[in-house]
Amino acid sequence: MSCLKCLKYTMCVANFLFFVCGAAILGFGIFMMTQTKFSSLLPSLPFMSVTNILIIAGIVITCVSFLGFLGAYKENRCLLITFFILLFVVMLMELAGACILLVYERDIDDRIKIDLKKSLETAKQSHNGTVTVISDDWDLFQKTFKCCGVEAATDWESQIPSSCKNGTGSNWNDGCYNKMKIWFEENLLNTGIGVIVICSIEVLGMCFSMTLFCHISRSGLGYKI
């Protein structure tokens, strides 16, 4: 009995912490949306926007963790089984997304390059004196990755922005497409480890919720509210 009490309060504490983290991620995503974002760089791939990813992840984490916390605290079978199902669905979506990225890696890679070129053409038009979200995003993008243009500074032709300048006053030699691709390749291992850790936490959450669910069923406290 003491072990089940420990399991119950462990689920409550863990889900509360995840709820706080999810709320923070959601708030940060909304804050970034009000500032500048990278969604205009990839118009045909909105799901790869940093702000969209943060907002969606924040909503999912807060909703699922709230169900887990409430189900464990109230010892409610309906909430616990809903928590289990949602965690299972989220894990399946993560695995499906990883498989899609692996299978269609080349197509997505080509799509990103085409989108970057299109958004750069739009940004060049906005540098005539009118500042737009797209030009702001390109300035932030180039400063972050220390690059210039899609493939080289010549992509900007005669309208090279100040964000292309390095400390010596000359332009960055590398294009943003290659720098971004190298960054993803260098962080591929860390991403894989992160996915494995997240999936492990989700599996533990499902195991804990099902254990508590079975105990409540045996004890006859089925729909206690």
Q: Explain this structure to me?
A:
By secondary structure, this protein is an all-alpha fold. It has two domains: about 1-90 and about 205-225, no CATH class; about 105-185, Cd81 Antigen, Extracellular Domain, Chain: A (Orthogonal Bundle). The protein has helices at about 1-35, 50-75, 75-105, 105-125, 135-145, 175-185, 190-220.
Shape: elongated
Report the uncertain regions. Answer: none
Number of helices: 7
End-to-end Cα distance, whole Å, is 20 Å
User: From N to C, what is the helix and strand string?
Assistant: HHHHHHH
Percent helix range: over 70%
Structural class of the helices, strands and pairings? mainly alpha
The overall strand count is: 0
Kindly estimate the percentage of residues that lie in beta strands according to DSSP. under 5%
Could you say how many structural domains there are in total? 2
> What's the main sheet like?
none
Provide a quick synopsis of the model:
This protein folds into two domains: 1-89 and 203-225, no CATH class; 104-186, Orthogonal Bundle (Cd81 Antigen, Extracellular Domain, Chain: A). It is built from seven helices and no strands.
